[in-house]
UniProtKB/TrEMBL annotation:
Gene3D superfamilies: Winged helix-like DNA-binding domain superfamily/Winged helix DNA-binding domain. This is HTH domain-containing protein. CDD domains: HTH_ARSR. InterPro entries: ArsR-like_HTH, WH-like_DNA-bd_sf, WH_DNA-bd_sf. It comes from the Bacteria.
């Protein structure tokens, strides 16, 4: 059995991969203050256990040279963070779908995220009218609920400027894999909170290493309206249909 100190260190490595992935071994060593040999040992153990996996990425600047090795949390690693009552929830949703079809599951998903929207609205509104600042406030609120979120600026022409919102953890990932209505409902909440038409680029449920949402900041913002007031979602197309593979 591993010494307790090794267990704690390994938990720190896994948490760092979750928060910063895709991340290199060298970056992890710097973040955690571990020697190259120590970080490699812990990464090897986590890889052998199926908790993390290697993602090969090209050189971001030139695209030339050998692909770089980056570590991300695996599907198993994501599920180990918490999937209590998963089978019960899956069975209930399957029965709901059988009785009421897609619309019933969609309504259920919308009701699940309605509470999140009510809690987040005053937080996002307090950030002011700037979409970028609202995006960062939304990321902070999501992180407070364990989604391990961040918002980064994508530079470009003013009309094309955007924020990219990333979520490193999804507590309902396995369910969302089978029922993408949950991803759609969450994305519609983001659109209403931010007042712009956002787009999902990737999701953990469809194999991405994070859930990524593109948020345009060079457009006029529409005032946020909470769900249940009769307002139409900003995006009429299904977000999981919009999502890039």
């Amino acid at each position: 059995m591993l010494p307790e100190s090794d267990d704690r260190t390994r938990d720190r490595v896994r948490a760092a991969v979750l928060e910063h992935g895709p991340v290199s071994a060298a970056q992890l060593g710097t973040l955690l203050g571990l020697t190259p040999a120590a970080i490699r040992r812990h990464l090897d153990t986590l890889s052998e256990g199926g908790v993390i996996e290697v993602k090969l990425t090209s050189n971001a600047k030139s695209g030339a040279g050998r692909p770089a090795r980056r570590y991300v949390l695996s599907r198993r690693g994501q599920s180990e963070l918490g999937d209590d009552y998963l089978e019960i929830a899956r069975t209930a949703l399957e029965q709901l779908s059988a009785l009421g079809g897609d619309a019933a599951v969609k309504d259920f998903a919308a009701s699940r995220f309605a509470g999140m929207e009510r809690r987040y609205l005053p937080i996002v509104e307090a950030a002011g009218s700037d979409v970028a600042q609202r995006s960062r406030a939304l990321a902070d609120a999501l992180s407070g609920d364990g989604f391990v979120a961040s918002a980064a600026t994508i530079h470009g022409a003013s009309a094309l400027s955007a924020q990219q919102l990333c979520q490193g953890h999804c507590p309902i990932q396995e369910l969302a894999t089978e029922f993408p209505q949950f991803c759609d409902a969450e994305t519609e909440v983001f659109s209403r909170l931010l007042g712009v038409d956002v787009r999902r680029l990737s999701t953990l449920a469809r194999g991405g290493h994070v859930c990524t949402t593109h948020i345009p900041t060079g457009r006029v913002r529409v005032p946020a309206v909470a769900a249940g007031t009769g307002a139409r979602p900003l995006s009429e197309a299904s977000n999981h249909q919009q999502e890039r593979p």
